[in-house]
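PROTOCOL LOG
Step 1. Enter all chains and additional molecules of the complex.
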Amino acid sequence: MKAPRLFLGAIVLFWGWQVQTIWIAIALALILESSHMVKSKFVFKPSDFNKFFDVCMVFFAGIIVISLTLEPEKAILIILKWLPLVFFPLITAQEFSVNGTIDSRAFFIVQRKRLKADIYDSKEIDISFLYSLFCILSSATANSKGPLFFVIVVLFFVWGLWQVRSRRVSFFLWMFCIFITILLGYVGHNAIRLTRIKINQWMMEYYAGYYADNPFKNFTALGEIGRLKLSDKIILRVWFQDYIEDKTYRLHTSSYTGFSKSNWFSGYGFKSVENGHDKTFWQINPLVNPRKKMTAYFRSSRENAVLTLPSGVLTISEIKALALKKNAMQSVRVEKIPSLIKYVVSYTGNLSYDAPPSDMDLQVPGNELPGIEKIIEELSLDKISDQEILNTIRNYFLTEYTYSLDLKGKQDQATPLQNFLNSTKSGHCEFFATATTLLLRKAKIPARYATGYMAHEYSLLGNHLIVRQRDAHAWSKAFINGQWINFDTTPPQFLEMDNQKVETSIISDFFSFLGFKLSQLRHETGAKLMNQYGLWLILPLGLTLFLRLRRSNRIKRIKLSGKSIDDTKQNPNDSPFYLIETKIVQQGFPRHSYETYSSWFARIMHHFDNENLNNELQILLQVHNRYCFSSSGLKKVEKIKFNSDIKNILERLIIARI
Amino acid sequence: MDELNYQWGHGIFKRLAANMEIVIKGQKECIRYILAGLASSGHILLEDNPGTGKTTLAKALAKSIDVDFKRIQFTPDLLPSDILGVSIFDPSQKLFKFHNGPVFTNILLADEINRASPRTQSALLESMAEGQVSIDGTILNLEKMFFVIATQNPVESSGTYPLPEAQMDRFAMQLKLGYVAREQEVAILSEQQEKHPIHTLSPCVTLKEILDLRFMVNQVFIAKELKLYMVDIVNKTREQIGISLGASPRATIALMKTAQALAVFDNQSFITSDHIQEIAVSVIAHRLVLDPQSSFSGVTPKSVVEDILRSIPVPV
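Step 2. Run joint prediction.
Step 3. Record the structure below.
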């Protein structure tokens, strides 16, 4: 099944137009269509097609590697987009070959072995329609939503199918069937789309029951950080421009305002941040001086993540993400990220960008009130100034409470927090932070609960700070003298206590570092090299192909005199009976090459309208056989009669139409 | 030779076929092929289940021609001398005197040929291929018209010795009768109610007529592309995967000769590709030896030949 003339060229142009590489497409189309113009063709053996196919496969593998390193999140789109270019060598080889088809054995390794043995029947296939399909598939990646795309694709299908339609079916019936098919395709496609939208809506509604307006959790339960404390997994590597030895850096992830039933809730939704001139640069807050700089890497197995950031973020750059959102409490989340994320943050270090206090920041839930009020009275917090309150609270927790990861279990208290305040007086950062926040609120100082990490461990392996999971921490933010400050009441020795609690393993640290370096190599160095030199890879490949073809020395060029060189194989006879065959074949009844005329007629005879026609054909067939196969042939008179009989029957030869 | 003569050959065929059809019902095709074997100087092997009319068919043919007919019932203890003949000492003349075996005849029916030992089967070899036998160092010529119809039960039956490939190759064709249609079996019942119709059969063709027919068959013209086509078909059996032994050039010759005979039967002075396709399976299939692997996977020699026919473009 050969694609009609100009079909391939047109479809390649369509591809170029859709994916906006029209100049490449014009070149490809000209090369493909020139095969019809030039008078010389090449004799390719199946083993030569092997080589073309190998080259296509190497291109294919190359584009997979390049796309995965450069933009893994869009890899499939990139691969699809360049599919026509990848398989261009093969289709060109086919179009310029003498046969115009490719031996199916050229494609499969198993079949190639058979090719060597040369014992199996070959099957010649024409890949032009397959290639056209690739072009359409590829054009679809441009995702133009207009009806024009659909119309043009339909036109291509009609064009391609037109030449292989059954000649037994009348034109109008054929068009009608095509129309019905298109209609069904259109309606079906729309139905699928609408169903998908509907299902999406249901899913969103279902999730909305749990998570307000974003798929991220915006609450945290007391005890979550306590669980993280038990792991020494390295989750973040940071470089501070102004690094001072042995300093502990506080990195913020999220802040929460509402507290209820041992859970903290965030009261603010996330909003998209527009990125400016560069796809990797996001302006979070207006620029001010002085600025500090921090660089961080982390690996994520998910495609969305919340960034761990210092206070007062101004910009985030060098990050590969499709979208970035932030909320009023300076939490930042990124979407559609690769597995290794790098980001560079410039920041001020103070909390001036956090949302101003609201009523929510003063609320204390009723079931926690008794315990809180007791302490307020005990410390007489309602009678002193704001700054004194902070000092009193800090001293209170430092002297009366101990830090411990071992929770003593629930006593006879109403809530875990009451348990901590009244009975055990021992717990980890979450309890200190929650209690502090609620105490501040009751003392009429707006306060929030914040979570994040304390970066303090310096790694000699990479000369940077490493942040382990157990460095997770919680603290309070208090609004004093018109600005937010971080207020941490957890006893300062907690980091050392955590270190003792969970042994770090040098070996797993080393492997973690190795893994980090490898993925850095893949995502940064690899991508850069590919970006700069990727296209040059094609050069040695093309050279290899050329040399292999040259060395095999088997490709011959053949000047074509007529339409096809197969003509010589055919019966040199000029019997007019062949006209009858042509006419019947045109009406949709092809003859198998192994069928004799009589067995062919026997197979299709019941389609003839006219009974007598059969008999006449049989008589003419006998004359034809005598003409072709007998020693004497036909006499001149007989031949004239034969010719006129054939002419006569040709006019009446109409086979029943459906 | 002009058209008129072929008309005569066509007439002989019609006469013989009509005579045999008195006895053999519903086997038009098989009769046509047997006669093609006869007219092309070949030998025929009939293979089918017991009781399908193999022997009756052979006898009907023998009775329709006015020639000498002998029959050998092959058994496991049959000896070559039982076929070819034996020299016996004559005490009165004090000489060894040769007694002709049943092979000295015009039509020989070798019934259940695969029941005899391979040694005895091979005794027929020389006689079938060359029309002569050598006994005690002397060569004796057989009749000018020597036609063997052998019957055998399917090879899988118990107590049989499969014919060796060389012996199979001597047969121009192997035919299968198969079971007849319902109505025709009823007709067989009605006819044989009183007596077997074969007893009423009388000769309708003479020996000379058969020899003339054989001469005529040899004159049938074969176009060059058809010769190529036949060679292609047989050649392909030698290349086809799954076949350990393909067909011999003898097969190609047999294919040509039987096709020529069919052309005469169709009143034509030349063969067409239809004739070749019609007879190819019967002429070629029995000569092929399949790999054990392909036999186990359900491939039969017949299907192999049919596949080959479907893979070669036919000259039209």
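Step 4. Note key features.
Residues 211-216, 561-572 of chain A have pLDDT under 50 and may be disordered.
The CA atoms of residues 375 and 439 of chain A lie 8 Å apart.
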